[in-house]
UniProtKB/TrEMBL annotation:
InterPro entries: Cupredoxin (IPR008972). Gene3D superfamilies: Cupredoxins - blue copper proteins (2.60.40.420). The lineage of its organism: Bacteria, Candidatus Kaiseribacteriota. It comes from Candidatus Kaiserbacteria bacterium RIFCSPHIGHO2_02_FULL_55_20. This is EfeO-type cupredoxin-like domain-containing protein. SUPFAM superfamilies: Cupredoxins. It comes from the Bacteria.
Length: 493
């Protein structure tokens, strides 16, 4: 057959269109298939992270982990460092290079994991049906999940996906929406958003976050600065902290305080080098010296110290890497520090006293009473109290606890009140943190003196965070004669 050139072109075009149609049918006309579920999968930790990054197994399937990096590793369930979402998914110790560790997954779901010795390396294991959790884009998807661990994983993916795909402003808006719905996880979610924001910052996104950075105990800046100090260095971290501005002079100071606290946390490697596990002083001494080299005001220097002790005391309280708190004398480690570091250490130990004393307020008081400076003792005692209360306690239960606490010693009655108010405020509904503390202040369980101390503490806390408009709203909720506590303060302009 004698084909003209034009006919050949026409045939080629028809074939191209047909091929394109087949391609579109294969790729878009049908829904994406779930990954094939395997009985056994191998994952290798490399310099590029865990490979393959995402794997899928049947319920009852096994994943075998090994490393090509020539050093120990420790694959374990999120979150780092406690591994509570799937606690059995944890070898409980490092795996030597050249050896492997296998785990059989008997629970259906999507499980994030990480290298406990280098948590920047992470991956996911899908077990059973794929719910699409890794690509989640709506909070409604997470809301209907009944398993708490899977719901937390879903929210973590949602926050990460939102920051990565829609930008930091959208991620912060989502966090603000989620925070009041998940008060017990609020600080962790804020911490996560901070880490995702740092990654966005590295990619060139502008970090423009307002009052939301203060929510949930300033978890955002803890997460952000921990990553920045560890990866970009002290000079960059210091420059950023100093540049931060809030809507008022008070909030600016508070934001910078928490920023420098995050720097201190970031100076402690997690995990520390293996050869200094269990040697707390060897871990913290270089970090404290770094804090000392910063040419900043003394109070920012102390914030840096507190971050260093925050990290090491967390290791001790969790019995990680060979570190433990002295059960007989929890403050012994702090009293061995140079005087300029001691109070920062005392405060971090105080925050763990509920667990260290089996939630016994009398024992806690006896331990902390070793702190002779009354001002430092008050701060430490109030911090310790925050570990004894939570958002789920009723107003009556909180009022009764204040009464029980005050019976330990008449000298600590106000400190008991301060600790309860601080705890409730730090984990309260964003922008409305004052509401539950004010409910407690009005409790019939409190004495008149305790009630006055309670309202005063809420006013002091509110002035650190709120605009004048929100302060007016808070003060309007305080009954006479205690509302006068607002009047004697000069509201920020």
């Amino acid at each position: 057959m004698n084909w003209s050139r034009s006919n050949l072109y026409l045939l080629g075009a028809v074939m191209l269109v047909a091929a394109l149609g087949i391609y579109l049918f294969l790729t878009t006309a049908r829904p994406a298939e779930s990954p094939a579920l395997q009985d056994n999968v191998s994952v290798v930790l490399t310099d590029a992270g865990f490979l393959p990054h995402d794997v899928a197994v049947k319920v009852g399937g096994t994943v075998t982990f090994s490393t090509a990096r020539g050093e120990p590793f420790w694959p374990a369930s999120d979150p780092h460092p406690v591994h509570t979402i799937y606690p059995e998914f944890d070898p409980q110790k490092p795996i030597k290079a050249g050896e492997s560790w296998s785990f059989t997954f008997r629970r259906e779901g999507t499980f994030k994991y990480h290298d406990h010795l280098g948590a920047q390396n992470w991956g996911t294991v899908l077990v059973g049906a794929d719910t699409g959790m890794r690509d989640v884009s709506s909070a409604k998807t997470c809301d209907v999940i009944s398993d708490l661990g899977q719901q937390r994983t879903c929210i973590g993916f949602l926050l990460q996906n939102t920051v990565n795909k829609k930008g930091l402003a959208a991620g912060v808006a989502l966090f603000k929406e989620l925070a009041p719905l998940h008060p017990e996880d609020c600080h962790q979610y804020a911490h996560d958003v901070g880490e995702y924001a740092y990654a966005a910052h590295v990619r060139g996104q502008k970090i423009d976050i307002g009052q939301e950075a203060s929510y949930c105990g300033y978890g955002f800046w803890h997460g952000f600065m921990t990553k920045m100090a560890a990866e970009s260095g002290l000079a960059s971290a210091k420059t950023l902290c100093i540049s931060l501005e809030g809507p008022t002079e008070r909030t600016t100071l508070e934001i910078r305080d928490n920023c420098f606290h995050g720097v201190g946390i970031g100076l402690i490697a997690d995990p520390p080098q293996k050869e200094i596990w269990g040697k707390a002083q060897a871990v913290i001494s270089p970090a404290l010296r770094y804090c000392d080299t910063m040419d900043v005001e003394d109070f920012f220097m102390r914030d840096c110290y507190s971050g260093v002790f925050h990290a090491i005391i967390n290791f001790m309280a969790s019995k990680q890497y060979g570190f433990v708190l002295d059960a007989k004398d929890p403050l012994a480690f702090c009293f061995a520090q140079e005087e300029k570091y001691r109070s920062s250490c005392n405060y971090q130990v105080a925050s763990k006293m509920a667990g260290a004393t089996d939630r016994n307020v009398s024992k806690m008081y006896a331990v902390l009473r070793r702190i002779r400076n009354e001002g430092e003792f008050k701060v430490a005692f109030s911090l310790a109290i925050t570990g004894f209360v939570n958002q789920q306690m009723s107003t009556k239960e909180l009022g009764d606890f204040i009464g029980q606490c005050a019976r330990v010693s008449s000298s600590v009655s106000d400190y008991c009140v301060s600790g309860v108010a601080q705890s409730l405020f730090s984990n309260g509904t964003p922008g409305k943190e004052f509401r539950k503390p004010l409910d407690v202040c009005g409790s019939g369980s409190l004495t008149e003196a305790q009630r006055g101390a309670c309202y005063k503490e809420v006013v002091i806390l509110s002035r650190k965070f709120y605009s004048r408009e929100t302060l007016d709203e808070m003060c309007a909720a305080i009954p006479d004669p205690y509302r006068a506590l607002c009047d004697v303060q000069t509201f920020p302009e």
